[in-house]
């Protein structure tokens, strides 16, 4: 499924829309200016899913799941 | 994952290593304000919203919370826009906006919207009245102009350093040896970085109200080579 880039944040952050869901995507090794042309583009991302910390549980650090 | 009181997921992110992992399937439109104008009710009435891409709407402002939301009305209905843009508009002013139509519990809203007054061009047209005006090469010269002088559209060519650039909202501030100034980009975007040395060519304008004095050179802008 193609993702729609709906917003560009500071640093390396993209806000992407998947259907009705809004997610953040972080391009870890790219200067933010390289992302400028991506606003409103349809893209396919290859990366891992990072799930934030579980509420009320110790910090287990980032967990990655490859595509 | 982070959850809220309703056990809904609130924090899920995609980590992408670098740009080689971003495949562009359909590039963005160069000028989103060149999209055809959609009637407001056509967005609200659509059961299946366009799943991709921005839309452009136009109407008169009926309300605004600056930095958060804007409401406009056209002949067919009203629409609320979510926008972090800080441009203040008055009720009754005609505005156009681009954004992503999304349906939520409130209804259909245009999210991540950018907007501008209708009738304010990106680049002031050239005018015979400006041909005899002196070229301003320092930002302090621009800032010393009174509003009525800035309206005369003095030609500007300044060289300075980018101190702030936000491509999302088209915000650019440039600093030279004496002062800093806001540069009105209109809908154009450039691959700029903070600290980059640039040359800005344009004309003064007193239409931007949130810079004092409200004097804004417009483009073309050419990054210089050091």
Number of helices of chain B: 3
Which residues of chain A form runs of ≥5 with pLDDT under 50? 54-67
Radius of gyration of chain A: 13 Å
Contiguous low-pLDDT stretches of chain B (5 residues minimum) are 122-130, 207-226
Radius of gyration of chain B: 20 Å
Please report the distance between the alpha carbons of the first and last residues of chain A: 13 Å
* Approximate strand percentage of chain B: 35-45%
Distance between the termini of chain B: 47 Å
Strand order of the largest sheet of chain B: 4-5-6-8-7
- Round the mean pLDDT of chain B to the nearest integer and report it: 76
Shape of chain A: globular
Largest interface: A-B, 46 and 40 residues
Description:
The complex is a heterodimer of chains A (67) and B (226). Chain A has 67 residues and is mostly beta strands. Chain A has no helices and 5 strands. Chain A has strands spanning 3-8, 13-18, 21-27, 42-45, 47-51. Chain A is globular, with a radius of gyration of 13 Å. With 226 residues, chain B is mostly beta strands. In chain B, a hairpin with a 5-residue loop joins strand 1 (2-3) and strand 2. Chain B is globular. Residues 122-130 and 207-226 of chain B have low confidence and may be disordered. At the A-B interface, strand 1, strand 2, strand 3, strand 4 and strand 5 of A face strand 1, strand 2, strand 3 and strand 7 of B.
